[in-house]
Amino acid sequence: MMIEDFCDEQKQETSNMDGNDSSLNPIFDLLYAAGYIHAATPDTPPSHKIAAGISWCIAALNAPTIDDENTEAIEEALRLVGCPHSLRSSDVRDLHTEAIFPVIQWLTQRVSSTQEDRGSDSKVCHSEHTVGEGEHAPHQLEELEQAEISMKTLSGILDELNHRKMNVVKQLDYLRGRINKEGADSGVQKLIYLMTSLKELERQENHFQSNRDSKHSELQAEITVLERKVASGCDSKSPSDGLQYSISDLLERLDLKKKQLAARLRDIVTLRRQIDDLPCQSEIVQYEHRLSELYAQIQGKHQQTRKYYASHNALLEIKELMLKETSLLNSIISQFQEAFSSTDGRVKLVRSMEGIVKGSQQKLEKVRLGFQEEEKILNALKDKYAAVAGEQKRCYSLMKDFQVECAKNERFQC
């Protein structure tokens, strides 16, 4: 991803170079106004025109000739002529107008001022120039040759830089293709992660070293203080005072430790009591057996109590029926003589007897229905008992078969 971003930046810079022609017009105007007529040539690339214009301005200022092998010729030449603005060869190649314009402006101003100085000198010393006209022409030819050499040097430098740029772009495209082809993107991400981890570890190491140094200084200061105390204690005239102070300090520390030990023992005793309150496994088993026995005993008592209550209710019902029967017989005996003495009495007696018989039949029917319900419950319990007994027999048979198979397995293993 980092290589792709770099390639995109390079392509963006190349596109920006093509779009800066409009912003270069003020630069070309300054060069043309200063006397460099090739600045108006439309066929020459902008970077070549700017390089040639800089070379012409430097030559016009009588600067030393630029070496062809020096890749930093522009910076060196500008430094020699005393230019206050910095300009790099990459700025000329990439057409950075913000860096080029102040340099061109300063050079053209210097060229104009130099030309004006030369013009004033020629007016004052016209005779000398007339006499030395034969010598001045070779000097101008030498300046033109130096300018041409500077232009060629800068053009060669620009060509070399452009060639390097193309090679770098090709190499980046090749690397990006290899990464996409071989699937090395994960490796690059892993490398980035490892580099980040390395920086983090270095930061932690520096932090640890700083903490170590501070701790070391603190311990060293404490050692120094203790040494001073020991030295002062040895040199003092009353060592018994220091000894007494040490003993009292030790006693206070001993009391403090005893208090801490007592508090710790109290906590231990409390924990032991809590542990003792919890039953162990054997006690839990005993509790379980005892609870099961109590449950069985309670079930037996419950069934026995229900049986007693049922018997009691049945006896109460029998008693009630017997009392009713006794009262009925007593009423019949007491009213029988009076009822048979008259016809109406006999009719009333018969009707009362019919009502008694009817009530007895209803009571008998009710008891019969209850008996049938009890029989149904009894039959259901018998069926359930038979099913449980069959299941128990089946479990016994399965257990017996399992024991037989276990015995066979043990014999086979032996």
From TrEMBL:
Superkingdom classification of source: Eukaryota
Keywords, alphabetical: Coiled coil
Domain CCDC93 coiled-coil intervals: 139-411
Location of the CCDC93 N-terminal domain: 21-112
Basic and acidic residues bias spans: 115-137
UniProt region (Disordered), positions on chain: 114-137
InterPro entries on file: CCDC93, CCDC93_CC, CCDC93_N
A GO biological process held by the record: Golgi to plasma membrane transport
Family of this protein: Belongs to the CCDC93 family.
Identification of the protein by name: CCDC93 coiled-coil domain-containing protein
Lineage: Eukaryota, Viridiplantae, Streptophyta, Embryophyta, Tracheophyta
